[in-house]
Amino acid sequence: MTTPESINPYDNSRGKTEQVREMFDNIAPAYDRLNRAMSFGLDRSWRRKAVAAVDATAPDTIVDIATGTGDFAISLARAIPDATVTGLDLSEGMVAIGRRKVREAGLASRVSLMTGDCLDSPLPEGCADAVTVAFGVRNFANLAAGYASMFRMLRPGGMLCVIELSTPVSPLVKPFYNLYTRGFIPLMGRVVSSDRRAYSYLPESIAAVPQGDDMLALMRGAGFVNAAFRRLTLGVCTIYTATRPTQST
Known about the structure:
Blueprint: H1 16-38, H2 42-55, E1 61-65, H3 71-79, E2 84-89, H4 92-104, E3 111-115, E4 128-134, H5 143-153, E5 154-165, H6 174-192, H7 198-208, H8 213-221, E6 225-232, E7 237-243
Parallel strand pairs: 1-2, 1-4, 2-3, 4-5
Antiparallel strand pairs: 5-7, 6-7
């Protein structure tokens, strides 16, 4: 069985974390432009729905894992004006762009972005009311360890919100989805990005990541409760939510 941990951006000669960092450093200048184009702008709608779910819990402190160029961190800060947001990402290239966007948005007093690995997080236990990940968990070198780390960062009663790309379940939609992700996306990536491999890795990693109930089982295995998911846009994106229990069981 193919797992997300076994799908590497380049080859099997190095660890996944190192390769993911290199890949995102390479594609950082084109990342935002390609995201908008490849999702037809739907990524903004998906983030808005996830932000609304987080906002409903009224968090004061949020940690945004795999923050990239800061889109989700900025959206959270704008929607929840009393919250502070700390973004963590492997790629200094992505974080550098994110910091510029944070300054331009006038949010530098409430949003801070830092380079780091969720699996070896510098953030203390129980530091957040909410932990979020937008389109990042399939890049973890160890997904179960990633959920355990995010569980540790949350205060009791805190919320986890994950947005991840997924494979449609409808047999009518799947053929068109496969043509788009396996043909058009790699082609566009090669044309626009300097990294020819990155946008072939994208559909491979989407296909390999646990989805639906399988993803919820991983969350529960890390200790989360109230795990649920919501499919969006014919199943090409899924929002997962869960909670750290208020007391140990």
